[in-house]
Amino acid sequence: MTYCVAMHLAEGLVFVSDSRTNAGIDHIATFRKLFTFGVTGERLIVLQTAGNLATSQSVVNLLKQRLDGQQPNLHNVPTLYDATALVAETIREVIARDGVSLAGNTDLTCSFLVGGQIAGSLPDLYSIYPQGNFIQATEDTPFLQLGESKYGKPILDRNLEFDTDLEEALRCALVSFDSTIRSNLSVGMPLDLLVYHRDSLIIPAGYRVTEEDPYFAGIRRRWAAGLHDLLGELPSPPVEYNV
Amino acid sequence: MTYCVAMHLAEGLVFVSDSRTNAGIDHIATFRKLFTFGVTGERLIVLQTAGNLATSQSVVNLLKQRLDGQQPNLHNVPTLYDATALVAETIREVIARDGVSLAGNTDLTCSFLVGGQIAGSLPDLYSIYPQGNFIQATEDTPFLQLGESKYGKPILDRNLEFDTDLEEALRCALVSFDSTIRSNLSVGMPLDLLVYHRDSLIIPAGYRVTEEDPYFAGIRRRWAAGLHDLLGELPSPPVEYNV
Protein backbone atom coordinates (compact mmCIF):
# COMPACT_ATOMS: atom_id res chain seq x y z
CA MET A 1 0.00 0.00 0.00
CA THR A 2 0.97 3.64 -0.15
CA TYR A 3 -0.11 6.96 1.25
CA CYS A 4 0.71 10.22 -0.55
CA VAL A 5 -0.72 13.70 0.00
CA ALA A 6 -0.19 16.81 -2.10
CA MET A 7 -1.58 20.25 -1.30
CA HIS A 8 -2.20 23.20 -3.59
CA LEU A 9 -2.31 26.31 -1.39
CA ALA A 10 -2.18 30.08 -1.76
CA GLU A 11 1.43 30.16 -0.53
CA GLY A 12 2.65 27.15 -2.54
CA LEU A 13 2.68 23.37 -2.61
CA VAL A 14 3.26 20.66 0.01
CA PHE A 15 4.05 17.03 -0.85
CA VAL A 16 4.40 14.11 1.60
CA SER A 17 4.81 10.42 0.70
CA ASP A 18 5.39 7.27 2.69
CA SER A 19 7.96 4.75 1.41
CA ARG A 20 6.59 1.30 2.18
CA THR A 21 5.87 -1.17 -0.59
CA ASN A 22 4.60 -4.68 -0.27
CA ALA A 23 4.07 -7.61 -2.59
CA GLY A 24 2.17 -9.75 -0.12
CA ILE A 25 2.37 -9.17 3.61
CA ASP A 26 5.71 -11.04 3.86
CA HIS A 27 7.46 -9.04 1.15
CA ILE A 28 7.86 -5.53 2.46
CA ALA A 29 10.45 -3.03 1.30
CA THR A 30 11.29 0.66 1.30
CA PHE A 31 11.11 2.60 -1.98
CA ARG A 32 11.01 6.32 -2.52
CA LYS A 33 7.69 7.48 -4.04
CA LEU A 34 8.46 11.21 -4.43
CA PHE A 35 10.50 12.42 -7.42
CA THR A 36 11.64 15.88 -8.47
CA PHE A 37 12.24 17.29 -11.95
CA GLY A 38 13.00 20.85 -12.94
CA VAL A 39 15.38 23.65 -13.80
CA THR A 40 16.11 26.28 -11.17
CA GLY A 41 14.49 29.59 -12.06
CA GLU A 42 12.31 28.03 -14.73
CA ARG A 43 10.30 25.03 -13.48
CA LEU A 44 9.69 22.52 -10.70
CA ILE A 45 7.73 19.32 -11.30
CA VAL A 46 7.14 16.87 -8.45
CA LEU A 47 5.78 13.35 -8.98
CA GLN A 48 4.33 11.06 -6.33
CA THR A 49 3.44 7.45 -7.13
CA ALA A 50 1.18 4.63 -5.95
CA GLY A 51 0.26 1.27 -7.41
CA ASN A 52 2.38 -1.25 -9.32
CA LEU A 53 6.02 -0.54 -8.43
CA ALA A 54 7.47 -1.97 -11.67
CA THR A 55 5.22 0.30 -13.71
CA SER A 56 5.79 3.45 -11.66
CA GLN A 57 9.57 2.96 -11.59
CA SER A 58 9.63 2.41 -15.36
CA VAL A 59 7.58 5.56 -15.89
CA VAL A 60 9.93 7.66 -13.77
CA ASN A 61 13.00 6.16 -15.47
CA LEU A 62 11.65 6.81 -18.96
CA LEU A 63 10.68 10.38 -18.01
CA LYS A 64 14.26 10.93 -16.75
CA GLN A 65 16.00 9.30 -19.73
CA ARG A 66 14.03 11.40 -22.17
CA LEU A 67 14.91 14.77 -20.62
CA ASP A 68 17.72 15.29 -23.14
CA GLY A 69 15.79 14.45 -26.30
CA GLN A 70 13.87 16.62 -28.75
CA GLN A 71 10.53 14.96 -27.99
CA PRO A 72 8.18 16.55 -25.46
CA ASN A 73 9.68 15.92 -22.03
CA LEU A 74 9.23 17.22 -18.49
CA HIS A 75 11.84 19.95 -19.05
CA ASN A 76 10.30 21.37 -22.24
CA VAL A 77 6.51 20.95 -22.03
CA PRO A 78 4.97 24.42 -21.71
CA THR A 79 2.47 23.77 -18.89
CA LEU A 80 1.85 21.55 -15.87
CA TYR A 81 -1.23 20.31 -17.71
CA ASP A 82 0.97 19.08 -20.56
CA ALA A 83 3.44 17.60 -18.09
CA THR A 84 0.59 15.62 -16.51
CA ALA A 85 -0.65 14.43 -19.91
CA LEU A 86 2.92 13.31 -20.70
CA VAL A 87 3.17 11.31 -17.48
CA ALA A 88 -0.23 9.72 -18.22
CA GLU A 89 0.90 8.81 -21.75
CA THR A 90 4.08 7.26 -20.38
CA ILE A 91 2.05 5.18 -17.91
CA ARG A 92 -0.06 3.83 -20.79
CA GLU A 93 3.11 3.12 -22.82
CA VAL A 94 4.68 1.06 -20.00
CA ILE A 95 1.47 -0.86 -19.31
CA ALA A 96 1.07 -1.62 -23.03
CA ARG A 97 4.71 -2.81 -23.22
CA ASP A 98 4.71 -4.97 -20.07
CA GLY A 99 1.14 -6.20 -20.36
CA VAL A 100 1.70 -8.06 -23.65
CA SER A 101 3.73 -10.91 -22.23
CA LEU A 102 2.06 -11.04 -18.85
CA ALA A 103 0.31 -14.23 -17.80
CA GLY A 104 -2.52 -14.08 -15.26
CA ASN A 105 -4.33 -10.98 -14.15
CA THR A 106 -1.56 -8.95 -12.52
CA ASP A 107 -2.67 -5.36 -12.03
CA LEU A 108 -0.05 -3.18 -13.75
CA THR A 109 -1.83 0.11 -13.15
CA CYS A 110 -0.51 2.94 -11.05
CA SER A 111 -1.58 6.41 -9.99
CA PHE A 112 0.46 9.63 -9.93
CA LEU A 113 0.19 13.05 -8.37
CA VAL A 114 1.88 15.73 -10.49
CA GLY A 115 2.45 19.17 -9.01
CA GLY A 116 4.74 22.14 -9.52
CA GLN A 117 5.15 25.45 -11.24
CA ILE A 118 6.50 26.59 -14.61
CA ALA A 119 7.70 30.21 -15.00
CA GLY A 120 4.87 32.42 -16.26
CA SER A 121 2.12 30.21 -14.83
CA LEU A 122 0.62 29.65 -11.40
CA PRO A 123 1.45 26.55 -9.36
CA ASP A 124 -0.71 23.59 -10.33
CA LEU A 125 -1.50 20.10 -9.05
CA TYR A 126 -3.06 17.05 -10.76
CA SER A 127 -3.99 13.48 -9.88
CA ILE A 128 -3.73 10.81 -12.58
CA TYR A 129 -6.14 7.89 -12.14
CA PRO A 130 -5.11 4.29 -12.91
CA GLN A 131 -7.15 4.66 -16.14
CA GLY A 132 -4.86 7.49 -17.28
CA ASN A 133 -7.31 10.40 -17.11
CA PHE A 134 -6.65 13.08 -14.49
CA ILE A 135 -8.19 15.76 -12.27
CA GLN A 136 -6.85 19.08 -11.03
CA ALA A 137 -6.81 20.46 -7.48
CA THR A 138 -8.74 23.70 -7.04
CA GLU A 139 -9.26 26.30 -4.33
CA ASP A 140 -12.36 24.40 -3.19
CA THR A 141 -10.47 21.11 -2.93
CA PRO A 142 -6.88 22.07 -2.18
CA PHE A 143 -5.51 18.59 -1.46
CA LEU A 144 -5.25 15.29 -3.35
CA GLN A 145 -4.39 11.88 -1.93
CA LEU A 146 -3.12 8.57 -3.31
CA GLY A 147 -3.44 5.11 -1.83
CA GLU A 148 -4.63 4.49 1.72
CA SER A 149 -6.40 7.81 2.00
CA LYS A 150 -9.26 7.26 4.45
CA TYR A 151 -7.61 7.06 7.87
CA GLY A 152 -5.86 10.39 7.37
CA LYS A 153 -8.61 12.24 5.51
CA PRO A 154 -10.77 13.59 8.39
CA ILE A 155 -7.96 15.82 9.72
CA LEU A 156 -7.42 17.27 6.22
CA ASP A 157 -11.17 17.70 5.60
CA ARG A 158 -11.51 19.55 8.88
CA ASN A 159 -8.48 21.83 8.82
CA LEU A 160 -7.06 22.38 5.37
CA GLU A 161 -8.16 25.33 3.26
CA PHE A 162 -6.58 27.05 0.28
CA ASP A 163 -5.44 29.89 2.56
CA THR A 164 -3.84 27.65 5.21
CA ASP A 165 -0.19 28.65 5.56
CA LEU A 166 2.50 26.19 4.46
CA GLU A 167 3.76 25.46 7.94
CA GLU A 168 0.34 24.61 9.35
CA ALA A 169 -0.45 22.62 6.21
CA LEU A 170 2.70 20.57 6.70
CA ARG A 171 1.83 19.88 10.35
CA CYS A 172 -1.65 18.84 9.20
CA ALA A 173 -0.10 16.46 6.64
CA LEU A 174 2.21 14.95 9.27
CA VAL A 175 -0.73 14.32 11.63
CA SER A 176 -2.61 12.75 8.71
CA PHE A 177 0.35 10.40 8.15
CA ASP A 178 0.56 9.59 11.85
CA SER A 179 -3.09 8.45 11.89
CA THR A 180 -2.61 6.39 8.73
CA ILE A 181 0.61 4.71 9.88
CA ARG A 182 -1.03 3.74 13.20
CA SER A 183 -4.04 2.18 11.49
CA ASN A 184 -2.48 0.50 8.43
CA LEU A 185 0.74 -1.48 8.67
CA SER A 186 1.25 -1.28 4.92
CA VAL A 187 1.93 2.47 5.16
CA GLY A 188 5.30 3.09 6.77
CA MET A 189 8.26 5.30 7.57
CA PRO A 190 10.44 6.97 6.41
CA LEU A 191 8.39 9.82 4.92
CA ASP A 192 9.61 12.02 2.08
CA LEU A 193 8.41 15.60 2.19
CA LEU A 194 8.88 18.65 0.04
CA VAL A 195 7.56 22.19 0.54
CA TYR A 196 7.55 24.61 -2.40
CA HIS A 197 7.05 28.35 -1.94
CA ARG A 198 5.02 29.85 -4.77
CA ASP A 199 7.03 31.74 -7.42
CA SER A 200 10.39 30.74 -5.86
CA LEU A 201 11.12 28.47 -8.86
CA ILE A 202 13.78 26.65 -6.90
CA ILE A 203 14.13 22.87 -6.69
CA PRO A 204 13.79 22.18 -2.96
CA ALA A 205 15.98 19.39 -1.58
CA GLY A 206 13.03 18.06 0.42
CA TYR A 207 13.55 16.15 3.62
CA ARG A 208 13.38 12.51 4.68
CA VAL A 209 11.63 11.96 8.01
CA THR A 210 12.97 8.79 9.62
CA GLU A 211 11.59 6.76 12.52
CA GLU A 212 14.10 8.51 14.81
CA ASP A 213 13.30 12.05 13.68
CA PRO A 214 12.85 14.00 16.95
CA TYR A 215 10.44 16.58 15.52
CA PHE A 216 8.03 14.04 14.03
CA ALA A 217 8.29 11.86 17.14
CA GLY A 218 7.40 14.92 19.22
CA ILE A 219 4.43 15.76 16.98
CA ARG A 220 3.15 12.19 17.30
CA ARG A 221 3.46 12.25 21.11
CA ARG A 222 1.85 15.66 21.50
CA TRP A 223 -0.96 14.83 19.10
CA ALA A 224 -1.78 11.57 20.89
CA ALA A 225 -1.70 13.26 24.31
CA GLY A 226 -3.71 16.25 23.03
CA LEU A 227 -6.43 14.04 21.53
CA HIS A 228 -6.65 12.06 24.74
CA ASP A 229 -7.03 15.25 26.80
CA LEU A 230 -9.54 16.68 24.35
CA LEU A 231 -11.66 13.54 24.59
CA GLY A 232 -11.49 13.67 28.38
CA GLU A 233 -12.59 17.31 28.41
CA LEU A 234 -15.74 16.73 26.34
CA PRO A 235 -18.87 17.16 28.49
CA SER A 236 -20.68 14.12 29.89
CA PRO A 237 -23.72 12.89 27.96
CA PRO A 238 -27.13 14.02 29.27
CA VAL A 239 -29.33 11.62 31.21
CA GLU A 240 -31.37 10.53 28.17
CA TYR A 241 -28.25 8.89 26.72
CA ASN A 242 -28.64 6.34 29.56
CA VAL A 243 -24.93 5.88 30.21
CA MET B 1 -23.14 2.47 3.17
CA THR B 2 -23.25 2.04 6.93
CA TYR B 3 -21.14 2.66 9.96
CA CYS B 4 -21.62 0.66 13.15
CA VAL B 5 -19.35 0.36 16.19
CA ALA B 6 -19.69 -1.99 19.14
CA MET B 7 -17.39 -2.03 22.17
CA HIS B 8 -16.73 -4.81 24.67
CA LEU B 9 -15.39 -3.15 27.82
CA ALA B 10 -14.76 -4.03 31.45
CA GLU B 11 -17.82 -2.05 32.56
CA GLY B 12 -20.16 -3.27 29.80
CA LEU B 13 -21.04 -2.81 26.15
CA VAL B 14 -21.54 0.23 23.90
CA PHE B 15 -23.31 0.12 20.53
CA VAL B 16 -23.69 2.98 18.02
CA SER B 17 -25.12 2.74 14.48
CA ASP B 18 -25.90 5.25 11.78
CA SER B 19 -29.20 4.94 9.88
CA ARG B 20 -28.50 5.89 6.27
CA THR B 21 -29.07 3.40 3.47
CA ASN B 22 -28.59 3.92 -0.21
CA ALA B 23 -29.33 2.00 -3.37
CA GLY B 24 -27.44 4.28 -5.70
CA ILE B 25 -26.53 7.83 -4.80
CA ASP B 26 -30.02 9.06 -5.71
CA HIS B 27 -31.92 6.58 -3.55
CA ILE B 28 -31.17 7.41 0.04
CA ALA B 29 -33.34 6.52 3.00
CA THR B 30 -33.28 6.16 6.78
CA PHE B 31 -33.49 2.69 8.32
CA ARG B 32 -32.69 1.60 11.84
CA LYS B 33 -29.68 -0.76 11.98
CA LEU B 34 -29.68 -1.53 15.72
CA PHE B 35 -32.08 -4.13 17.14
CA THR B 36 -32.63 -5.38 20.68
CA PHE B 37 -33.75 -8.81 21.89
CA GLY B 38 -33.91 -10.12 25.42
CA VAL B 39 -35.73 -10.82 28.65
CA THR B 40 -35.17 -8.48 31.59
CA GLY B 41 -33.15 -10.19 34.30
CA GLU B 42 -32.10 -13.05 32.01
CA ARG B 43 -30.57 -11.84 28.72
CA LEU B 44 -29.86 -8.94 26.40
CA ILE B 45 -28.88 -9.48 22.77
CA VAL B 46 -28.16 -6.51 20.50
CA LEU B 47 -27.80 -6.82 16.72
CA GLN B 48 -26.29 -4.24 14.35
CA THR B 49 -26.46 -4.69 10.60
CA ALA B 50 -24.68 -3.65 7.42
CA GLY B 51 -24.93 -4.77 3.82
CA ASN B 52 -27.97 -5.76 1.76
CA LEU B 53 -31.02 -4.22 3.45
CA ALA B 54 -33.52 -6.81 2.15
CA THR B 55 -31.39 -9.61 3.58
CA SER B 56 -30.70 -7.96 6.94
CA GLN B 57 -34.37 -6.98 7.44
CA SER B 58 -35.50 -10.52 6.61
CA VAL B 59 -32.97 -11.95 9.05
CA VAL B 60 -34.19 -9.68 11.87
CA ASN B 61 -37.84 -10.42 11.05
CA LEU B 62 -37.29 -14.19 11.03
CA LEU B 63 -35.36 -14.02 14.30
CA LYS B 64 -38.28 -12.08 15.87
CA GLN B 65 -41.03 -14.35 14.46
CA ARG B 66 -39.30 -17.43 15.77
CA LEU B 67 -39.00 -16.23 19.37
CA ASP B 68 -42.17 -18.11 20.37
CA GLY B 69 -41.32 -21.44 18.78
CA GLN B 70 -39.65 -24.56 20.18
CA GLN B 71 -36.69 -24.32 17.83
CA PRO B 72 -33.48 -22.64 18.98
CA ASN B 73 -34.17 -18.90 19.05
CA LEU B 74 -32.57 -15.78 20.50
CA HIS B 75 -34.55 -16.14 23.74
CA ASN B 76 -33.57 -19.73 24.43
CA VAL B 77 -30.05 -20.32 23.08
CA PRO B 78 -27.75 -20.87 26.07
CA THR B 79 -24.82 -18.60 25.07
CA LEU B 80 -23.97 -15.51 23.02
CA TYR B 81 -21.82 -17.79 20.89
CA ASP B 82 -24.89 -19.88 20.01
CA ALA B 83 -26.92 -16.72 19.42
CA THR B 84 -24.29 -15.55 16.93
CA ALA B 85 -24.25 -18.93 15.18
CA LEU B 86 -28.05 -18.75 14.93
CA VAL B 87 -27.92 -15.28 13.35
CA ALA B 88 -25.27 -16.52 10.89
CA GLU B 89 -27.41 -19.54 9.99
CA THR B 90 -30.42 -17.29 9.42
CA ILE B 91 -28.35 -15.06 7.11
CA ARG B 92 -27.41 -18.12 5.04
CA GLU B 93 -31.03 -19.25 4.97
CA VAL B 94 -32.29 -15.90 3.63
CA ILE B 95 -29.52 -15.66 1.03
CA ALA B 96 -30.23 -19.22 -0.14
CA ARG B 97 -33.97 -18.43 -0.38
CA ASP B 98 -33.69 -15.07 -2.17
CA GLY B 99 -30.67 -15.95 -4.30
CA VAL B 100 -32.43 -18.74 -6.23
CA SER B 101 -34.64 -16.52 -8.35
CA LEU B 102 -32.24 -13.60 -8.60
CA ALA B 103 -31.01 -12.53 -12.03
CA GLY B 104 -27.69 -10.70 -12.38
CA ASN B 105 -25.04 -10.49 -9.73
CA THR B 106 -26.81 -8.60 -6.93
CA ASP B 107 -24.83 -8.91 -3.70
CA LEU B 108 -27.23 -10.30 -1.11
CA THR B 109 -24.66 -10.60 1.67
CA CYS B 110 -24.74 -8.69 4.91
CA SER B 111 -22.70 -8.42 8.09
CA PHE B 112 -23.87 -8.37 11.70
CA LEU B 113 -22.46 -7.42 15.07
CA VAL B 114 -23.97 -9.48 17.90
CA GLY B 115 -23.38 -8.42 21.49
CA GLY B 116 -25.00 -8.81 24.87
CA GLN B 117 -25.05 -10.88 28.02
CA ILE B 118 -26.92 -14.00 29.17
CA ALA B 119 -27.33 -14.64 32.92
CA GLY B 120 -24.50 -16.79 34.23
CA SER B 121 -22.03 -15.71 31.53
CA LEU B 122 -19.89 -12.65 30.93
CA PRO B 123 -20.86 -10.04 28.31
CA ASP B 124 -19.74 -11.04 24.83
CA LEU B 125 -19.44 -9.46 21.37
CA TYR B 126 -19.08 -11.02 17.89
CA SER B 127 -18.79 -9.85 14.29
CA ILE B 128 -20.33 -12.02 11.55
CA TYR B 129 -18.59 -11.72 8.17
CA PRO B 130 -20.57 -11.70 4.90
CA GLN B 131 -19.37 -15.31 4.45
CA GLY B 132 -21.18 -16.30 7.68
CA ASN B 133 -18.17 -17.11 9.86
CA PHE B 134 -17.52 -14.85 12.84
CA ILE B 135 -14.93 -13.43 15.22
CA GLN B 136 -15.13 -12.40 18.87
CA ALA B 137 -13.97 -9.15 20.50
CA THR B 138 -11.32 -9.65 23.20
CA GLU B 139 -9.57 -7.52 25.81
CA ASP B 140 -6.80 -6.85 23.26
CA THR B 141 -9.26 -5.71 20.61
CA PRO B 142 -12.23 -4.32 22.52
CA PHE B 143 -14.12 -2.82 19.58
CA LEU B 144 -15.56 -4.11 16.30
CA GLN B 145 -16.79 -2.06 13.34
CA LEU B 146 -19.08 -2.64 10.35
CA GLY B 147 -19.19 -0.76 7.06
CA GLU B 148 -17.32 2.48 6.47
CA SER B 149 -14.82 1.87 9.25
CA LYS B 150 -11.65 3.68 8.19
CA TYR B 151 -12.39 7.37 8.72
CA GLY B 152 -13.41 6.81 12.33
CA LYS B 153 -10.88 4.13 13.26
CA PRO B 154 -7.82 6.21 14.27
CA ILE B 155 -9.63 7.81 17.24
CA LEU B 156 -10.69 4.36 18.46
CA ASP B 157 -7.23 2.86 17.88
CA ARG B 158 -5.67 5.68 19.88
CA ASN B 159 -8.03 5.96 22.83
CA LEU B 160 -10.10 2.87 23.42
CA GLU B 161 -8.94 0.16 25.82
CA PHE B 162 -10.77 -2.61 27.60
CA ASP B 163 -10.64 -0.58 30.82
CA THR B 164 -11.97 2.67 29.30
CA ASP B 165 -15.12 3.67 31.23
CA LEU B 166 -18.47 3.55 29.44
CA GLU B 167 -18.94 7.31 29.35
CA GLU B 168 -15.54 8.03 27.78
CA ALA B 169 -16.05 5.11 25.38
CA LEU B 170 -19.36 6.58 24.25
CA ARG B 171 -17.76 10.00 23.69
CA CYS B 172 -15.02 8.27 21.69
CA ALA B 173 -17.65 6.49 19.57
CA LEU B 174 -19.51 9.76 18.94
CA VAL B 175 -16.30 11.47 17.79
CA SER B 176 -15.60 8.47 15.54
CA PHE B 177 -19.06 8.93 13.98
CA ASP B 178 -18.51 12.66 13.57
CA SER B 179 -15.32 12.04 11.55
CA THR B 180 -17.04 9.40 9.41
CA ILE B 181 -20.15 11.47 8.71
CA ARG B 182 -17.99 14.44 7.65
CA SER B 183 -15.94 12.35 5.22
CA ASN B 184 -18.56 10.00 3.74
CA LEU B 185 -21.98 11.24 2.67
CA SER B 186 -23.36 7.70 2.67
CA VAL B 187 -23.08 7.54 6.47
CA GLY B 188 -25.71 9.77 8.08
CA MET B 189 -27.80 10.86 11.02
CA PRO B 190 -29.75 9.98 13.07
CA LEU B 191 -27.57 7.68 15.18
CA ASP B 192 -28.96 4.91 17.37
CA LEU B 193 -26.97 4.22 20.53
CA LEU B 194 -27.29 1.80 23.40
CA VAL B 195 -25.13 1.48 26.51
CA TYR B 196 -25.30 -1.71 28.60
CA HIS B 197 -23.87 -1.91 32.11
CA ARG B 198 -22.34 -5.31 32.80
CA ASP B 199 -24.48 -7.70 34.89
CA SER B 200 -27.46 -5.30 34.91
CA LEU B 201 -29.40 -7.71 32.65
CA ILE B 202 -31.85 -4.95 31.74
CA ILE B 203 -32.96 -4.12 28.19
CA PRO B 204 -31.86 -0.49 27.77
CA ALA B 205 -34.20 1.70 25.76
CA GLY B 206 -31.24 3.18 23.90
CA TYR B 207 -31.33 6.66 22.47
CA ARG B 208 -31.74 8.16 19.01
CA VAL B 209 -29.37 11.08 18.32
CA THR B 210 -30.95 13.38 15.75
CA GLU B 211 -29.39 16.15 13.70
CA GLU B 212 -30.76 18.68 16.22
CA ASP B 213 -29.50 16.90 19.33
CA PRO B 214 -27.82 19.68 21.36
CA TYR B 215 -25.34 17.40 23.12
CA PHE B 216 -24.01 15.78 19.93
CA ALA B 217 -23.96 19.15 18.15
CA GLY B 218 -21.91 20.53 21.06
CA ILE B 219 -19.49 17.57 20.94
CA ARG B 220 -18.99 18.11 17.19
CA ARG B 221 -18.34 21.85 17.65
CA ARG B 222 -15.95 21.37 20.57
CA TRP B 223 -14.09 18.55 18.85
CA ALA B 224 -13.60 20.55 15.64
CA ALA B 225 -12.43 23.62 17.59
CA GLY B 226 -10.21 21.51 19.86
CA LEU B 227 -8.50 19.79 16.91
CA HIS B 228 -7.93 23.12 15.22
CA ASP B 229 -6.35 24.55 18.36
CA LEU B 230 -4.28 21.42 18.92
CA LEU B 231 -2.93 21.63 15.38
CA GLY B 232 -2.10 25.30 15.86
CA GLU B 233 -0.24 24.57 19.10
CA LEU B 234 2.08 21.94 17.57
CA PRO B 235 5.65 23.24 17.39
CA SER B 236 7.04 24.61 14.13
CA PRO B 237 9.14 22.25 12.01
CA PRO B 238 12.92 22.58 12.36
CA VAL B 239 14.96 24.33 9.65
CA GLU B 240 15.88 21.10 7.83
CA TYR B 241 12.20 20.63 6.91
CA ASN B 242 12.72 23.66 4.61
CA VAL B 243 9.29 25.17 5.18
TrEMBL record, chains A, B:
GO MF annotation terms: peptidase activity
Xref: Gene3D superfamilies: Glutamine Phosphoribosylpyrophosphate, subunit 1, domain 1
GO cellular component: proteasome complex
Keyword Protease set for record: yes
GO biological process annotation, one example: proteolysis
UniProt cross-references to CDD domains, sorted A to Z: proteasome_beta_bacterial
SUPFAM superfamilies assigned to the protein according to its UniProt record, in alphabetical order: N-terminal nucleophile aminohydrolases (Ntn hydrolases)
Pfam (any one): Proteasome
Name used for this protein in its record: Proteasome-type protease
Organism: Metapseudomonas boanensis
